[in-house]
Amino acid sequence: MAKPQSRYICQSCGAVYSKWAGRCEECGTWNSVVEEQGSGGYSKVAAIPGKKSGSGREIEFASLDQPNQETLRTQTGINELDRVLGGGLVAGSGVLIGGDPGIGKSTLLLQLASAVALNDEACVYITGEESVEQIRMRAARLGLKNAPMAIAAATSVRDILATLKKGPAAKVVIIDSVQTMYLDSVESAPGTVTQVRSSAYELISFAKQSGAAILLVGHVTKDGQIAGPKVLEHMVDTVLYFEGERGHQFRILRSVKNRFGPANEIGVFEMTEKGLMEVANPSALFLSESHNNVSGSAIFAGMEGTRPLLVEIQALVAPSFLATPRRAVVGWDINRLAMIIAVLGTRAGVQLYDKEVYLNVAGGLKINEPAADLPVAAAIISSLSNVSLPKETVIFGEVGLSGEVRKVSHVDIRLKEAEKLGFTRAIVPGGTKSKHKTNNNFILREINHINQLKQVLGSGD
Fold first, then answer.
1. pTM (2 d.p.)
2. Alpha-carbon dihedral sign for residues 417, 420, 422, 423
């Protein structure tokens, strides 16, 4: 029998080497290359007895005009989760959920399993990190102990699949977490790149064959990315990230990949003693009660997926006695802030080279939309001049390097959300008024260049 060959695999990015190295050449991580035995899982195609090398079975092609089969979905009973998934769990799909430790991943999935089971759908919850007693204690604390779901503590993928194939067909299977699973045919420790990749492949293959929707919990690294090989995110149909700050009770469930629905969709939850509660009006959640007549505050009318969201952006400009003034950001990209500061200094004459700038997105939300450029600039100018923005005003727009204010998408949806929450004014990019109609009492102030922000603050309208 041939001796299995040793390979050296980076536990950070999955790069493979023939010999050990102290630093991975692909991702630059130190001391992450580990020796592993065997073929490395599913990537090696075994020879088929009775067939010559290179031979294969002819595949059948289809055309685009053929009718599609109806997509079967299982409602989770949690509206915010169904929104993020695109309408519910698709039969045979694989969903990967990542998030920081203690953020509420297991709580959310236990509530999901309970809701599915109470809807007379067979649901299985398998944990590799806790005991069955711990699951029962959490269910009792959340008031879910009467839910007719099956729970088990196991880490062997072979045992799990044998049990699932033998027992009654399950509609939903939850694995918490994929980093604790292992295949005895792979000679490496649980949590390594090879084990994570191979275990996930076997579990997802079972989901495709059986039609069960499988949800995998994934650990994250210190950078907030799902631990293990990046191919893990490519293997599943949907990738969800559970976000939130420890100091806030609110949690954001965000889809970064979804083959059966829109990406970048969010669901908003509030962590309570009874578990995660849905937030029906997230815009009101992220708005401060005292945002009126406060300098350094701007209300941003943003979009998260298909959902409009009003968020308060707070800025504080303070004198600095340091050679290099501080720039601190919570909830936004610090490189984007540096660009806005440079544009303000060069194009609008707002000099901040001797000032410290602090920026915060209220409520713990993280914003990645370029349309937040203009409200950030407005909040900085407002704090520097100690003049508040006009009352009941929202603002959005992208700022270019020449200082021009660019148009953004979904203007109608943003303005309707602002009107619904009682706002009566909006500062928008030039050309918006002629294309989008609003209530007669709603005032649109168009600006084409960032230096016009000082005029808006000075005029108060």
1. 0.80
2. positive
